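If your schedule permits, I should be very grateful for your opinion on a structural question. I would ask you to consider whether the tokens describe a fold that such a sequence might reasonably adopt. Thank you for your consideration; the sequence and its tokens are set out here.
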Amino acid sequence: MAEICVFVEYVGEKILRVSQEAVSEAVRHAGKFDARCNALVLGHRVPSKVLEDLRRFGVDRVLVCEEESLSEYSTERYTDRLEQILQDQAPDLLLMGSSALTRDLAPRLSARLCSGLVTEATFLNPQRGGLQVTRAAYRPHASMIFSFQAKGPAIVTLAPKIAEVERAPSKDRFTLETPEFRGKTLSLRVDRVNIEQAVREIPSQVDLEDAEVIVAGGKGMQAGENFRLLEDLAEVLGGTVGASRMAVDLKWRPRESMVGVTGKVVSPGLYVACGISGAIHHLMGMQSSETIVAINTDPNAPIFRIATLGILGDVQDVLPVMIDAFRKAAAEADRQERSA
């Protein structure tokens, strides 16, 4: 493995956590094989802080593609430019953090480049003869191992919170470059997609993808106002509130709180699923959580199959008891700390 590329997402001047993890993982593997690590950044007027942070992560080179047409994400435009960059650079591996954007982008790139793709990877094992990638099949019962042996970049999206974020020593040979497209303009294929509106995510106190505790609700919450119970539980546990796709479709919660393959893929230390049956698209978005507590009235709900602890009961009855118990425990711990 001689060349590794890592795609970098950022918002404002901040590199997204999933991209920080992907960059750290790419730098580690590049060091093992004395390979060059290249960060790929697309956008318009990329903030200098983003580029400086990448230098501090220890990448060898940053390829910055700045065009006004890339100021907002477009499937066709981003695919078109990344395809050209990767054809020119010919890396052995393209690593991406798993996000809503890369779940849209990675399959397109894979098809364009005729390259293999593994999503939500949990372990990378680069070898001299190729690359082995592990991903969860159905936590915690099984996993799958894939081997890349064909020519062309292996494309891998890294599951959240699998890699530690580490800042490596800055390299003297660090370079900042602009890809040359030799007069190529963006493909006319971009005309197939028009962006009608860009909806900005409303930030919560704790971002779902960074939260250590998530209390999520589904259709079993019965009404939007009942999510107040989840907010109270999340507050006492120091977490944030998530929702199933059904709860979002019913307008009970904003879209940015949706957990699942079409929302946020999360991996907190504690995930409390309240009134969520466990449709496969939801399970795939949270099954890597360290501890899963499920509350549901249906004993056959799929969520119980992956739960660490299952509570058979109505959330309207169970949640007030849990909130009261945790508040009393917190008050007692605070009292003991003050008296110590």
